[in-house]
Amino acid sequence: MVFVVLLLLLLLQMGCTPDYNCTGDDPVQIPHEWYQPSEIIIGGIVSHIYFLLTEVYFLRHPSEEEINVKMMVPQFYQHILAMVFAIHEINNNPNILPNITLGFYIYDNYYDARMTYRTTLDLLFKSHQFYPNYKCGSKTHLMGVIGGLSSDTSSQMADVLGLYKIPQFSYGSFQPAVNGQIGFPSFYRMVPNEALQYQGIVQLLLHFKWKWVGLMSIDDDGGEHFLQTIEPMLSRNGICSAFTNKAPINMRIFEMNEMSEYIMDSIPVFRDSKANAVVIYGETANIRWLAAIILGIKESLQHNEKTSFGKVWITTAQIDFALYTMQKAWDMQMFHGAISFTIPAKQLPGFQKYLQTVNPTQTKGNGFIKDFWEQAFDCFISNPNMPADETCTCEERLEHLPGQFFQLKLTGHSYSIYNAVYAVAHTIHIRHSSNHRKMDDGSKLTPWKVGPWQLHSLLRNNPFNNSIGDEVMLNQHGEFAAGFDITNTVTFPNNSYVRVRVGRLDPQALPGKMLTINEERLKWHRDLSEVPPLSLCNDQCYPGYSRKKKEGEKFCCYDCSPCPEERISNQEDLDYCIKCQEDHFPNPHKDHCIPKIQRYLSFEDPLGITLASSSLLFSLITSLVLSIFIKLQDTPIVRANNRNLTYLLLISLLLCFLCALLFIGQPSNVTCFLRQTAFGIIFSIAVSCVLAKTVTVVVVFMASKPGNIFQKWVGKRLAHSVVLCCSLVQVGICAIWLGSSPPFPDFNMYSVTEEIIAECNEGSVTMFYSVLGYMGFLATVSFIVAFLARKLPDSFNEAKFITFSMLVFCSVWVSFVPTYLCTKGKYMVAVEIFSILSSGAGLLCCIFAPKCYIIVFRPGLNKREQLIRRKY
């Protein structure tokens, strides 16, 4: 029999002494120490099935005798013993129910809905049939029911009991919405809310980073509700279900073909899946199905290179690792390392000692112990037809049974039954204390009467302490207000096991900290190659890579692609690579960001030193040339082509070379404000001087012809006017630039990946190129005019030198634009400085080098007579 205890409370009149009670078809004799003359009796229903999973792996057809055998899950017998122990404690405690003794009835519904409804109706309307030897024709009052373990049994009972407002206490963990249990105001659950358990499952998977998990449930409404609830929760947290296995419910041994088909179909699903974590929901029957599947897997692996099979089984609170006695040869090592959510249970002083006193000789009023003892110890009681070695000695002890058949340690379900008994007792105690019996004629007591519906107001939000001081409270929803324990199954060579508490699921904890787990205490399956194991669809994407979805597969299955430029992934399994902050850049492996170094063309930089030295050198040369020209200002070469323009041109070139120094060093408001405008204006003056010189040559030549209109333009006024007008246009452009959008210091985060470039933001790029464009326009005009005037017959003609100088000047600045746009960082500044120095040097060399050569090295040629002779 599979025990699913449902206990019933009845109120009797004083003086009635029942001799025994019935459990379905079989009488159950209650020992005197369990049952005494009472007013209140607790009774219940026990579920059982005929057969389940006998030698299912070998697939042999059962005999007729096997089909008629009633199979019991011995471990569930503890549920009855916990109930009896609680009643025994209450009956011996005068502080709870003085002058009142508790008793009970136990019924078996055979896992059959019709039987459940029948026995529930019998409790309501045929209770007089419980007492064939009763005295004084008493009336009974049903006070409450404890049961059942499964949601189907509980809901079927609630259909009847809810109509009469009789308190019903379920000790099984299942979703309250299943089968509409939440609609019964008289229904109470002595276990925590299962919705909390779903959250715990998700948090456990996230804790160990298990993203590819299997799901196993019973193929019923409860299992379907579990799958419909948990799968969206998994998806929201980035977890996928690798497979879903639905175990059949209530399958009989004579349905061998169906059992074989299910197991053989399930073997490759569990064996070949990459999911190392499997969540098992439902009832203890799932464990027996799973055990048969694992046995089949191990048999198939014996013929392959892979000889080990280890997974992490995650079980819900409804499941116990309990087998039938015929399965004693099955190795419990297959469940080593399983992680379970369990109902919190405190160990009761004296309970284990009480279990050690249980003996099959206590048959009076206990119709279950004979079947339990024979199946648990594989012997027969008082059967003369059996050999002596198969007869029970009655010296067997429960502590000698392996853990899969019986647990001396109180389980969560047994503790829930224990608390349910105390909940009813304390509620009646409060009701009894508030309604003292009245005296009639000073001598006779009026019997105390209370209806079961009168207990509901005291059951919710009314905490009490059980015998060990543990507080028990049912909240406003009729649920046990507590969390779940996280236990780890540890098996031993003798095929026994213990559940070690390794964590806690606390609903009162802060968000994100509901689950606490001590990994150091965890034991993992011995066949796992890595601990904690991975449970992923594919290998993790390490930092530096991001996940790329595989077409046609679940989102947990993906490829790993390297992060693109300027992006990183610093965690495993990121969906997208992320950009670094503006002041950071990716390292070569693209798994973290490195702070950028601030860069600018400094005077300490080798390139800065070179350019600054070149600027000063050219400035020195220009000053030397200017000093020579000033010293020899009266010589013919110096005086030729307007001596004042020559001085102005040399001063402009000197300032051009010096203004290059403004581009070196950390940008500031002053340097940014002056850089481009000073360079543009000074260079415009220099080019204007060159243009004025060229125009002067042309005008002088034209004016030498009699009657030419250019004779009135000959003189210094023309040259000065050209310089002034051309320079004022550039000054106007720069004024507009500085007035509308002036340059300012800025940090460029993007042009160079590894650096922060301290630079001058030009403010208006249009104005910057306008300055360059106008300067290029002046240079082009100067080049054209000089080119046309290069062959004019004049000893003072500088047009040839100006042509070469403008050719160099234009070449430099034409190549400057693409080069400037292609460079980044400090090299952009270096390119502009180089263009300034090279173009200025071109003007200085092409125009003044020949003159300086004559002045310094050939002074004999620097005479008027020589120049006139050359002219003719």
Describe the protein in words.
Helices cover about 40% and strands about 15% of the residues. It has 4 domains: about 5-190 and about 345-430 and about 450-470, Rossmann fold, CATH 3.40.50; about 195-345 and about 480-520, Response regulator (Rossmann fold), CATH 3.40.50.2300; about 545-595, no CATH class; about 605-870, Rhodopsin 7-helix transmembrane proteins (Rhopdopsin 7-helix transmembrane proteins, Up-down Bundle), CATH 1.20.1070. The protein has about 850 residues and is an alpha/beta fold. Strand 26 and strand 27 form a beta hairpin. The strands form 9 sheets. An 8-stranded mixed β-sheet has the order 11-10-12-13-14-19-20-21, sandwiched between helices. Mean pLDDT is about 80; it is low at about 1-70, about 130-140 and about 435-445. It starts with 6 loop residues before the first strand and ends with a helix.
Keywords:
30 strands, rod-shaped, alpha/beta, 4 domains, Rossmann fold, disordered N terminus, about 850 residues, eight-stranded mixed β-sheet
Outline: rod-shaped
The helix content is 25-40%
Give the total of beta strands.
Answer: 30
Compute the average pLDDT.
79
Biggest sheet strand order reads 11-10-12-13-14-19-20-21
Could you state the oligomeric state of the chains shown?
A: single chain
Radius of gyration: 51 Å
User: Which segments are poorly predicted (pLDDT under 50) over 5 or more consecutive residues?
Assistant: 1-69, 128-139, 437-446
SS summary, helix count = 21
**CATH topology of the largest domain, which one?**
Rossmann fold
The proportion of residues in beta strands is 5-15%
Q: Can you name the CATH architecture of the largest domain?
A: 3-Layer(aba) Sandwich
Number of individual domains: 4
Question: Biggest β-sheet, characterized?
Answer: 8 strands, mixed
Highest-level CATH class of the largest domain: Alpha Beta
CATH superfamily of the largest domain: Response regulator
Class derived from helix and strand content = alpha/beta
Distance between the termini: 139 Å
